[in-house]
């Protein structure tokens, strides 16, 4: 398939979306200023909008979710401090060890349960006593959604309350927290309640080209602001990209339900072909592919105009640039490969 003549159905991630024309129009019109001087009215508007929608005092715009997570970890924890985190969590596993490398923060990874949670007993057991032998346990970091799974809301309340009771702060890696909220019919305020800080990606399912927002108290973000400058995240006329974030928060949250429906459509269709497929809670589907078939399937999908990361534990992600019709085409491509 020639890329120039036909559109790819790209299921590698929900980060692959193109800004829509309306989003581009908002970017084109954005009023800008130098955000390092806090002079960019559009960045300020995005930060205020996000803070209001999620129920926090303030927000801070940064280039990526990796950076907003790192800002949070470095603000909550100092040198020789420790954070409790899931083995599967993005901040631990997929951010290059940044907390340790750049923050001198020790991660204490803990096994994730099947539903993505960290058992309350484990949280309690891993908190270190005040003793010179140990790092100082300061923070509990959760992730919602985690691998596409929605943390049970009752669990979130219990885990954040336990952390509070033990004197720990709490951070939520909410890269896809809007998916979790829409799935459960909760407001963004309800789903992030109990956390001291939350990182939200604008560039995943929400469809903006760049950026994440860190939410917290004014005082917390004042410190995070200093780390952002140190890490090279101080941007200048960033209103051009912040405008896309505003558009995303105002237009693309509730529609995430379509992505969830498409994930279910795809999962059901592939399961009907005899494949072992996860039951998606949000926009991520996992498919078991026999190792011997991976190369062949990869080629068949490319031939059908489908981009996907084929592996024995294959992950596909739906987003606003794929439709229900596209899901049917993907199922057809699998069918043709499996039952030629
Ligand atoms: C994508 C993602 C991030 C980081 O976002 P980037 O903008 O790619 O740095 C953090 N946490 C989770 C759970 C993510 O999925």
UniProtKB/TrEMBL annotation:
Pfam families on file: Beta_elim_lyase
Molecular functions (GO terms): L-allo-threonine aldolase activity
InterPro entries noted in UniProt: ArAA_b-elim_lyase/Thr_aldolase, Low_specificity_L-TA-like, PyrdxlP-dep_Trfase, PyrdxlP-dep_Trfase_major, PyrdxlP-dep_Trfase_small
Keywords of the record: Lyase, Pyridoxal phosphate
EC number: 4.1.2.48
Keyword Transport appears in the UniProt entry: no
Modified residues (N6-(pyridoxal phosphate)lysine): 204
Record-level GO cellular component terms: cytosol
SUPFAM superfamilies (alphabetical): PLP-dependent transferases
Gene Ontology biological-process entries: glycine biosynthetic process; L-threonine catabolic process
Keyword Lyase: yes
Residues covered by the Aromatic amino acid beta-eliminating lyase/threonine aldolase domain: 10-289
Cofactor: pyridoxal 5'-phosphate
Assembly notes: Homotetramer.
Similarity-based family: Belongs to the threonine aldolase family.
PANTHER family noted in UniProt: L-THREONINE ALDOLASE, L-THREONINE ALDOLASE-RELATED
Protein name: Low-specificity L-threonine aldolase
């Amino acid at each position: 398939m020639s890329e120039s003549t036909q559109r790819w159905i790209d299921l590698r991630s929900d980060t692959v979306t193109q800004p829509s024309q309306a989003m581009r129009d908002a970017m084109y019109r954005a009023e800008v200023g130098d955000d390092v001087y806090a002079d960019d009215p559009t960045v300020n508007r995005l930060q205020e909008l996000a803070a209001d929608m999620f129920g926090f005092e303030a927000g801070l715009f940064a280039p990526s979710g990796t950076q907003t997570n790192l800002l949070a970890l470095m603000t909550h924890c100092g040198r020789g401090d420790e954070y409790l985190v899931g083995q599967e969590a993005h901040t631990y596993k997929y951010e290059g060890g940044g907390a340790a490398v750049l923050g001198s923060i020790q991660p204490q990874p803990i096994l994730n349960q099947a539903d993505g949670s960290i058992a309350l007993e484990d949280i309690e057991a891993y908190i270190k006593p005040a003793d010179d032998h140990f790092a100082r346990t300061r923070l509990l970091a959760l992730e919602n959604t985690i691998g596409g799974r929605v943390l049970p809301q009752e669990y979130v309340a219990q885990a954040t309350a336990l952390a509070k009771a033990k004197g720990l702060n709490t951070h939520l890696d909410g890269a896809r927290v809007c998916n979790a909220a829409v799935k459960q019919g909760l407001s963004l305020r309800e789903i992030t309640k109990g956390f001291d800080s939350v990182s939200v990606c604008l560039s995943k399912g929400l469809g903006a080209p760049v950026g994440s927002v860190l939410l917290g108290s004014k005082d917390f973000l004042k410190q995070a602001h200093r780390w952002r400058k140190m890490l090279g995240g101080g941007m200048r006329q960033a209103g051009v990209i912040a405008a896309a974030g505003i558009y995303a928060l105002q237009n693309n949250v509730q529609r995430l339900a379509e992505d969830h429906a498409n994930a279910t459509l795809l999962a059901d269709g592939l399961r009907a072909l005899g494949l072992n497929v996860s039951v998606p809670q949000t926009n991520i589907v996992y498919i078991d592919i026999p190792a011997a078939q991976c190369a062949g399937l990869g080629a068949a999908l490319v031939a059908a105009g489908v981009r996907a990361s084929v592996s024995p534990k294959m992950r596909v992600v739906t987003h606003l640039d794929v439709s229900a019709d596209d899901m049917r085409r993907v199922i057809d491509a699998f069918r043709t490969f499996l039952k030629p």
